[in-house]
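To illustrate the input format used throughout this study, we show a single complete record. The first block contains the structure-token representation of the backbone; no residue identities are included at this stage. The design step must infer an amino acid for every position from geometry alone.
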């Protein structure tokens, strides 16, 4: 069902292009509410705009100049060509939990099957990009069990804990949502393309972003997207995070947004656990010593976690070639390298991806086996 005409949507998209014009999301919402629609707001004269609270003459002049550079009709064409759906703040499918935060985005862009406002019991799992074997196991286990209980697992599709959480949710028979720091039609990191395809084409979830189609990933966009990861969620679970990890930003934002925050404790001498242990020590997060600790606190999660053996996600290219060489009996790196006829660097990167995907287990001494 269409709640907005393409013409009206075009003007919301146009407003979203005005970065640096002094018109943040809250001011745009005020303009559109006062004038009755995004189209009227976009086409308003200076004399009309000057009576709207919060708009200085400088902001109005900058807006009038910048809007000459934007063609609303082209934006809807670009949106449809990218296979992306846009949900402005006023749209009924805009996530209700996200409306509660201090600075909700003007528009949520989505690609995939899930409707943003239809995420049952959303829980975020975040953490380091370089997890230990302990962190890898718990990220998949917690995500698997949450999904088995009917929760939607939300993360950022980064290498490490994020990717493991998405895959654990899929293997648990549930849905998962990735919030990107780029346009929803841009797969970042590119090494996660198989996971991205599962989310947008496999009926297993969706990718969301506040950035329009074609937006490339830039460093500053990722802390901004973290407020959406927490804002979409009822709770955030942090599994391994260093002292400067972006996951701690998500945890702090979740705390400020009045969300439940959980941290999984780790070894006191492990750099990956310094941040999570600090959250627990400062009482800014519940200690999650087991999945049952989370379930006990989050009484709104219904059902019992499945104990079924997880199914393997589909592998492609060199990852599949290496996986096919391996068995449940450990094989040394040098032997794999010889069998695969691969360069050492390429093999090392491929094995790391398989390990993070939960398909391969690394043993001491550079031995590898299929996940049991």
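Output of the design step:
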């Amino acid at each position: 069902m269409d709640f907005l005409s393409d013409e009206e949507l075009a003007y919301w998209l146009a407003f979203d292009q005005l970065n640096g014009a002094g018109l943040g999301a809250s001011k745009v919402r005020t303009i559109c509410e006062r004038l009755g629609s995004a189209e009227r707001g976009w086409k308003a004269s200076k004399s009309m705009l000057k009576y709207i609270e919060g708009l200085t003459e400088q902001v109005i002049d900058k807006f009038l100049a910048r809007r000459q550079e934007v063609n609303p009709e082209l934006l809807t064409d670009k949106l449809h060509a990218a296979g992306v759906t846009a949900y402005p703040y006023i749209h009924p499918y805009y996530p209700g939990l996200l409306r509660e935060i201090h600075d909700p985005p003007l528009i949520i862009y989505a690609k995939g099957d899930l409707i943003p406002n239809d995420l049952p019991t959303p829980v975020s799992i975040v953490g380091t990009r370089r997890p230990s074997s302990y962190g890898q196991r718990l990220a998949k286990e917690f995500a698997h069990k949450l999904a088995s209980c009917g929760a939607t697992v939300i993360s950022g599709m980064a290498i490490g804990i994020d990717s493991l959480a998405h895959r654990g949710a899929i293997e648990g028979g549930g849905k998962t949502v990735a919030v990107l720091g780029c346009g929803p039609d841009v797969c970042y990191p590119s090494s996660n393309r198989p996971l991205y395809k599962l989310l947008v084409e496999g009926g297993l979830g969706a990718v969301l972003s506040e950035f329009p189609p074609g937006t490339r990933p830039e460093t500053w966009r990722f802390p901004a997207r973290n407020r959406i990861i927490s804002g979409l969620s009822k709770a955030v679970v942090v599994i391994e995070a260093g002292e400067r990890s972006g996951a701690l930003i998500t945890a702090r934002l979740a705390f400020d947004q009045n969300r439940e925050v959980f941290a999984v404790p780790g070894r006191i001498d492990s750099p990956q656990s310094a941040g999570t242990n600090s959250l627990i020590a400062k009482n800014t997060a519940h200690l999650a010593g087991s999945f049952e600790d989370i379930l006990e606190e989050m009484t709104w999660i219904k059902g019992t976690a499945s104990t079924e053996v997880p199914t393997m996600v589909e592998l492609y290219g060199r990852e599949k070639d290496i996986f096919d060489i391996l068995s449940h009996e450990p094989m040394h790196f040098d032997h794999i390298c010889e069998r695969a006829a691969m360069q050492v660097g390429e093999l090392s990167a491929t094995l790391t991806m398989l390990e993070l995907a939960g398909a391969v287990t690394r043993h001491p001494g550079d031995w590898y086996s299929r996940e049991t």
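Structural context for interpreting the output: The two ends are 45 Å apart (CA to CA). Residues 306-312 have pLDDT under 50 and may be disordered.
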